[in-house]
Request: fold
Amino acid sequence: MMEFLARLFGRVETETSRECARNRLRLVLVQDRATLSPHVMEQLKSELIEVISRYLDIDEGDMRVELDTSDASVALVASIPVKEIKRESAGAF
Amino acid sequence: MMSGTAIVVTSGKGGVGKTTAAANIGAGLAMSGPTVALVDADIGLRNLDLVLGLENRIVYDLVDVVEGACDVQKALVRHKHIDNLSLLPAAQSRDKTAVTPDQMKALTMTLRESFDFVILDCPAGIEQGFKNAISGADKAIVVTTPEMSAVRDADRIIGMLESEQIRDPWLIVNRIRPDMVKRHDMMNVDDLLDFLKVELLGVVPDDESIIVSTNRGVPAVMEEKSRAGRAFRDIAARILGNDVPIAAMLEPDDWLARFAKWLGISRG
Reply:
C-alpha cells in the first residue's frame, strides 16, 4: 500500500528502460574497447622490457602482458618473471 | 578537374536502415544539384536498386565492371526522375570475395572523376565486404538506431574506421521515437553521442512513410510530406555545408502535438 502511494506521488525511483540501457551499454563498451592492436601491444611490451631491464634481469620469453576486463574497469596485468635482481638495484645504500 | 567526395554509409549491425539512408542521402544530394553515383557494395545481397525503384533497369553490375566485362559508364543506371543520380548495382549471383579492396579503391577513384559525390552502401558486418566498401572512401557515415546492439556495433565500426585512417565519421541516429524518448523508454540522441563521441549529422524519426516509399521504389526525400524524407533532405543539406538545425526531429508528432501546432501553441 505504501509502495502504491509512493509510486502515485512519484517517490519511488524506478529505473527507466533508458537508464537500464545506458548502464548496461556503458559496461559492455568498456569491455569491447579494452583491446589494443597487436602492433601497439608489441610496442608496449618492448618498451616495458626496456625500462624494467635497467633494474631487473627478466625472462622475456615467459613475460605476459594483457588487458583484464573482469569488472566494469580495465586493468593492465603484466606477469614478468624475474631471473635476477641486478646488484646495483638491490636495497643496500 | 576536381575530384568528387567518396562517402561510405556503414553501421556494423544489419537492419538499422543503412541502404535506405544511402539511397536517401544520394537522392537528397542529387536533388540539390551535384552529380551523385550510388554504389551498392553489398555484393550478393543487392538491395539499393529496390529502394530506388531501378531493379528492372539493371544490365551490368559492379563485378562486371571490376572484372573488365564492361565499362563503368555502361553499368551505371540513371535514376528515372533525378537525372544527375546514377546507381552502380551490386552483383546478385556472386559473393564478397569477387572483389578486393584494391579493386574497389580503383573503382571509387574512377567514379570520383565523373561525379561530385560517390555514396557507397556498405554491407553489414566487419568482414571483407566492409573492408571493400571503405577502401576508397574519404569519409564515413555511421548509421545507428537508439538500441543497445546497434550502438555497440556502431562503436566497434567507429574504431575500425579509425584504424583504417577514416577519421571523424558522421553519425546518423535512425528510427528515433520522440514519444518513447519523452517517457524515458528509449535512449536519446545525447546518450548515443555520449557513448560514441562523434559528430552528429542527423536524426531520422521512425516513420511509416519509409516503408511506403520503399514499396513504391521512390526514396522518401522525394516525398514532400514524409518526416523521414525531410530529415534526409536536412542531412543532405548539412553534407553540402549548410547549417540546418536538428531539433525539430526530436519533438513527438502525435495527434496532440499536431493539434497544438494547429492551435499555434509551441511546446518547445
User: Anything to note?
Assistant: Chain B touches chain A through 17 residues (CB under 8 Å). Strands of chain B lie at 5-10, 36-40, 77-78, 85-88, 117-121, 139-144, 170-176, 199-205. The mean pLDDT of chain B is 93.
